[in-house]
């Protein structure tokens, strides 16, 4: 991969751990790109690539069942069932000709195009992770730091700004 700064690490139950830069993500084929995420999330901006494309590069192990979405900046961690989210996940990294800024959840934001299509109670609005730094492919469900009450949810969004 390129020598530019790493935006996203992909590790765990994969044959090829990755350290992806903006240029690496931007260099994925047009067929793997998702332009204008506001088409399915009207309040979100940016463009990216499919989760499927990123995990294809990493060569996910057959026994993998989950991905852990890690936002190390906020110590925020969300497990997502791999089968449910693979076709719906988007790695958003690009906005207006450059990197996705922090005001929009960058440098990487994970979005689920259509959570209803995932058909699982394990995913919710907080599964759309801001400031994503790592995707860890796992065989089991890992640590989940999503808020469990309305007060915790409000505090999380207050902290993130």
Oligomer: single chain
Report the portion of residues in β strands: 25-35%
N/C terminus separation = 33 Å
Q: Low-confidence spans: pLDDT under 50, at least 5 residues?
A: none
Strand order of the largest sheet: 2-1-10-5-6
State the order of secondary-structure elements, H for helix, E for strand.
EEHEEHEEHEEEHEH
Element layout with pairings:
Layout lengths: L5 E7 L5 E4 H5 L6 E2 L12 E4 H8 L7 E6 L4 E6 H4 L3 E7 L2 E2 L9 E4 L2 H4 L15 E5 L11 H11 L1
Can you put this structure into words, describing what you see?
The protein has about 160 residues and is an alpha+beta fold. The chain is built from 5 helices and 10 strands. The strands form 2 sheets. It has a 5-stranded mixed sheet with strand order 2-1-10-5-6. Strands 3, 4, 7, 8 and 9 form a 5-stranded antiparallel sheet that branches. Strand 1 (about 5-10) and strand 2 (about 20) form a beta hairpin. The longest helix has 11 residues, at about 150-160. It is globular, with a radius of gyration of 15 Å. It starts with 5 loop residues before the first strand and ends with a helix.
């Amino acid at each position: 991969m390129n020598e530019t700064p790493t935006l996203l690490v992909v590790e765990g139950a994969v044959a090829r751990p990755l350290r992806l830069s903006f240029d690496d993500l931007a260099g994925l084929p047009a067929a793997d790109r998702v332009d204008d995420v506001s088409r399915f999330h009207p309040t979100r901006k940016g463009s990216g690539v499919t989760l499927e494309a990123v995990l294809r590069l990493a060569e996910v192990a057959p026994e993998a069942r989950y991905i852990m979405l890690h936002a190390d900046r906020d110590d925020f961690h969300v497990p997502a069932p791999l089968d449910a989210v693979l076709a719906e996940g988007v790695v958003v990294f690009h906005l207006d000709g450059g990197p996705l800024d922090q005001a929009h959840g960058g440098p990487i934001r994970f979005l689920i195009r259509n959570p209803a299509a995932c058909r699982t109670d394990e995913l919710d609005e907080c599964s759309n992770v801001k400031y994503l730094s790592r995707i860890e492919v796992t065989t089991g469900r890992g640590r989940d730091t999503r808020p469990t009450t309305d007060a915790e949810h409000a505090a999380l969004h207050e902290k993130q700004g």
